[in-house]
Amino acid sequence: MESFKHEIGFVGMVTDTDSTMTDSLESGDLSTTAEKVRLPHDQSGMLWFEDQPTTLFLESIDRWTRTLLEDDGFVPVGASKLTVRARVVAKEAGTLCGVHVINRLLDVHLPHINRAWQAREGGHFQTGDVILILDGTPRDILSVERIILNFLGRLSGISTLTEKWTKGLSGMKVASTRKTSWGLLDKWAVHVGGGLTHRLRKGDAVMIKENDQIALREGEENRSKETMKRWIETTDFNWHGSFTVIEVDSISLALTVAKSWCNRMMETDENRPLVIMLDNMGPVKTKEAVMDLKSHGYNEWIYTEASGNVKFEDIDEWKITDVDVISTSKLNMGVSSIDMSMLLDDEGIREIVS
């Protein structure tokens, strides 16, 4: 399935059409941005399915837009014969994300504003490019000016940085974490930039991290190896979502977990993927762990994920580890927003002649 990344296209006048005027511009394949992989970390199908946003995604958009509008004291004006044209202009280059968020915002709260997108979701834009043209009452447009810019700026910042990571990794996959500020919207922006979403919600997959391993200890168990071996042998995985993640901090624990998991899969004829998260092990130990796991033949059910202190400046070292995916909160946490502005046309307010 091809990527939905496209270069900027240009569409015509706004006031001659309604809010559906840019359907052709937005009709690209949005089912995935990353190359198709068999990694369980790509949960983007829960956000976009059959060429449209899912209910889960729309509900998240509605919650965020409603909250921001209410915080801002938003009161819509409604239809009017007085109109003004506004343009959203990029003040720096980037990868666009937020088209569907803004469309939903306007469809639900300001249907009288006509819009024309000058760039696609996932498309590239340069400094000075017009991203979006709006026609509507001055009060309506100005009432959502900052909210529109905040959405587009933040989400485009994430997608732009994620694309930088994906290009730098030269085919290795990078996934976000659940350290998000804007929840599913952050995940969508990572997806648009070519990254993998990882879990969208806790129920998508069970993740057993250090604190969980301590909480799972029973009786005389005092080591994670003993706890995880018993847990893997006795746990009902039917409630685990689509995959399971177990965090390890050493090669020996990784081998113990992998052996226990593969033994269970062979004994029970189950066919469930396990992600072994190699936490804070660094590129050198990660490479050694991956080699050891493969040398034992554990890779039929096992995926490897490197996480913890993964930095962009170290990606050349990570690329030679042969790990299946790296995950980092740096894709979306503390990311600088893309600078954009909204400018009203100099001609000012116009009256629509019916």
Write the layout of secondary structure elements.
Blueprint: E1 48-49, E2 52-53, H1 55-71, E3 82-90, E4 94-95, H2 99-109, E5 114-117, E6 124-125, E7 130-136, H3 138-143, H4 145-169, E8 173-175, H5 184-192, E9 205-208, H6 210-215, H7 224-234, E10 243-248, H8 251-268, E11 274-279, H9 282-295, E12 302-307, H10 315-318, E13 325-327, E14 340-344, E15 350-351
Describe this structure in words.
The protein is α/β, with parallel strands linked by helices and 354 residues long. It folds into two domains: 44-162 and 336-351, Alpha-Beta Complex (Aldehyde Oxidoreductase, domain 3), CATH 3.90.1170; 209-331, Aldolase class I (TIM Barrel, Alpha-Beta Barrel). The protein contains ten helices and 15 strands. The protein has helices spanning 55-71, 99-109, 138-143, 145-169, 184-192, 210-215, 224-234, 251-268, 282-295, 315-318, and strands at 48-49, 52-53, 82-90, 94-95, 114-117, 124-125, 130-136, 173-175, 205-208, 243-248, 274-279, 302-307, 325-327, 340-344, 350-351. The strands form four sheets. It has a six-stranded parallel beta sheet with strand order 8-13-12-11-10-9. β10, α8 and β11 (274-279) form a beta-alpha-beta unit. 41% of the residues are buried. Mean pLDDT is 86; it is low at 1-37.
